[in-house]
Write a structure and sequence with these properties.
It contains ten helices and six strands; from the N terminus they run βαβαβαβαβαβααααα. By secondary structure, it is an alpha/beta fold. It is elongated, with a radius of gyration of 21 Å.
């Protein structure tokens, strides 16, 4: 874990994003708050090279990179330094991405709409050993963890509901009784806090439980 001195004025931050204007914008904003930019990278490969060379106090990492997934970059950085402080800074509000990032060891998950002053504050907080999760993301994470209790069989039922299959068709496809299908649907509605089958599918897609 970084020492408290890392949270002092001149922190070193590595910015990883494939959009030039985002990189330049972040660099300019953070510089105004006396945060040093140790490097900017547009790809996962460059990010790892710069991380190894500069050992930043905090890495700001986008999930969408041209050569690899940001979560893979996160894993690689933490292999290089298990104590590395990495904050995901993204537009993605997919619950599965959020859950995976935190589970893998990210120190934060922030959305790109964050104000500059708040971002600088959160970076200092992370550098000092804290966590930084956007309030709306934290709420979604809590709901998603609850939804993770959905069983594999229930996921199968959800996929078939998403395809417009009736209870009878689902029972035939999965070779289970119609009453069993009804029980799975009832459980899904409760676990996902959905009012009907359609809403359950929408929530499941939003949370990354199924793809459609």
């Amino acid at each position: 874990m970084k020492s408290k001195s890392a949270a002092a004025k001149h922190l070193k931050v590595l910015i990883v994003d494939d959009h030039p204007m985002v990189r330049e914008g972040l660099a300019g904003i953070l510089s105004r708050f006396e945060i040093t930019i140790s490097g900017v990278a547009a790809t996962g490969q460059n990010a790892l090279r710069m991380f190894s060379a500069t050992r930043p106090d905090v890495t700001l990492l986008d999930l969408r990179l041209p050569d690899q997934n940001g979560l893979d970059v996160l894993k690689s950085i933490l292999k290089l330094d298990p104590n590395a402080r990495v904050v995901i800074l993204t537009t993605s509000q997919a619950d599965a991405n959020l859950y995976d990032a935190i589970s893998l060891g990210a120190s934060g998950y922030l959305l790109k709409g964050i104000e500059g002053a708040s971002l600088a504050q959160q970076i200092r907080h992370v550098a000092g050993g804290g966590k930084a999760i956007a309030p709306e993301a934290l709420e979604r994470l809590t709901r998603y963890i609850g939804a993770k209790k959905v069983s594999e069989r229930e996921i199968e039922v959800l996929r078939l509901i998403a395809l417009g299959k009736s209870n009878k068709e689902i029972s035939q496809r999965l070779d289970i009784a119609v009453d069993t299908v009804k029980m799975h649907v009832k459980n899904l509605l409760q676990k996902l806090h959905a009012s009907d089958r359609t809403q359950a599918v929408v929530i499941a897609i939003q949370r990354g439980l199924i793809q459609y």
